Amino acid sequence: xxxxxxxxxxxxxxxxxxxxxxxxxxxxxxxxxxxxxxxxxxxxxxxxxxxxxxxxxxxxxxxxxxxxxxxxxxxxxxxxxxxxxxxxxxxxxxxxxxxxxxxxxxxxxxxxxxxxxxxxxxxxxxxxxxxxxxxxxxxxxxxxxxxxxxxxxxxxxxxxxxxxxxxxxxxxxxxxxxxxxxxxxxxxxxxxxxxxxxxxxxxxxxxxxxxxxxxxxxxxxxxxxxxxxxxxxxxxxxxxxxxxxxxxx
Amino acid sequence: xxxxxxxxxxxxxxxxxxxxxxxxxxxxxxxxxxxxxxxxxxxxxxxxxxxxxxxxxxxxxxxxxxxxxxxxxxxxxxxxxxxxxxxxxxxxxxxxxxxxxxxxxxxxxxxxxxxxxxxxxxxxxxxxxxxxxxxxxxxxxxxxxxxxxxxxxxxxxxxxxxxxxxxxxxxxxxxxxxxxxxxxxxxxxxxxxxxxxxxxxxxxxxxxxxxxxxxxxxxxxxxxxxxxxxxxxxxxxxxxxxxxxxxxxxxxxxxx
Lengths: 249, 256
Ligand SMILES: Nc1ncnc2c1ncn2[C@@H]1O[C@H](COP(=O)(O)OP(=O)(O)OP(=O)(O)O)[C@@H](O)[C@H]1O
Ligand SMILES: [Mg+2]
Known about the structure:
The complex is a heterodimer of chains A (about 250) and B (about 260).
Chain A (H helix, E strand, L loop, with lengths): L1 H24 L9 H13 L3 H32 L1 H16 L6 H8 L3 H25 L3 H9 L4 H39 L4 H10 L3 H29 L7
Helix pairs in contact in A: 2-10, 3-4, 3-6, 3-8, 3-9, 5-6, 6-8, 8-9, 8-10, 9-10
Chain B lengths: L1 E12 L3 E12 L3 E6 L5 H9 L6 E6 L2 E2 L7 E4 L11 H5 L1 H4 L6 H13 L15 H13 L5 E5 L7 H18 L2 E6 L2 H7 L2 E6 L2 E7 L14 H14 L13
Parallel strand pairs in B: 3-8, 3-9, 6-7, 7-8
Antiparallel strand pairs in B: 1-2, 1-4, 4-5, 9-10
Helix pairs in contact in B: 4-5, 7-8
């Protein structure tokens, strides 16, 4: 509790120091804006309704990309974990695709899907796909050999073994992948908008940059950070809820 | 007619060499056999061969005359480790063999509760395995193997994690249940007294071979006083000597 208080106090002190320094040294608002100005812009943007549509667009893109990427990643992970031939066939490509900077494909997606939401959703989905694929594959293959033997002894079908043994026992690993995907989804959505968005928080940053409005850019950083913290906490909460059983291994 | 027949069964691994060497054994229907031997001599491997979890490299295992080709429905197996599903309650773990076949009925649930009572865990049905002690977990694993009432039961040191008193109670419960259902049993243990108390016949394994066979001609049902009778102690001593390789009388001859 004391630590929390101290860390909040540190934040306030930092902001105060920043404010005082900028005022005293007369730093241009173009380079580093005053915290008080940023907060005022943020408040005006939220209360005046300027930021809300952008926040909404980014949230929707993130949610859609996350849902699509995670679903496809999970299903592909199950498929590759269950069918060794496919795994051996695709594994080199999966390893190769890990090192491809997915965001660099953004311009290509704009050619394919045009400016706007679709290309951003596709980038976000692609980024979320990999952690889910990796972790699902790992999680399903890490099942305790004793438990596999038990299911073999009980003559469980392949589907039963998947649904009642492999997925539940791999769940902690799969959910860790989800937590990574959530953070990446925000990066994907914002950067996707940098490249090809008309609306959204990322597009607004580019617009603010065009107007040399550093104050607005800082306000947008804050909104993005808060959005990220909320979805991360939501994912962590989901994880805690699903793993509320005394889980081990 | 014998229920389980093991004929010249052998097993090996590429880098470990021979683990089991031409095992011959048979268990009559409703008989209770124990398998003793030092750690690492191949007891678990033999049990898995009989269960159909491992294919024999040589020879054959038959259950009711049929060659074993894989895990069969009539076999219950208690593994050396409890092997419970941590994300399921004790009751769900008990009902796992049933629920993999069909939706558990209220009768199955009652049966599971009864078995839980029998192994001394009534009231813990709603707990998760992570909330049980090691000995309690192994009792759940035992009850799980009994829930489908299989005609053949293979047990791999099921009582190793228990205190002496609980162990004696469970031994009596197991004998009672097996007598009631005429279950055929192969029971692996380290404990000489346990083998003598439970079994009609004890096989001694040494380095992947069956070296001795000891019949246990004690009347059934066996009660607490049997454990302290001179006959019982004499049999334990004989088994001990067989494990040391000294008892010539019961040595298994081996052609070639
Ligand atoms: N997968 C394996 N690969 C190589 N060697 C193995 C394998 N499994 C078992 N062994 C070896 O086979 C031998 C017999 O193993 P097994 O598990 O049957 O012994 P055990 O008699 O059940 O021992 P314990 O009483 O300690 O449980 C051991 O020496 C072991 O090292
Ligand atoms: Mg063993």
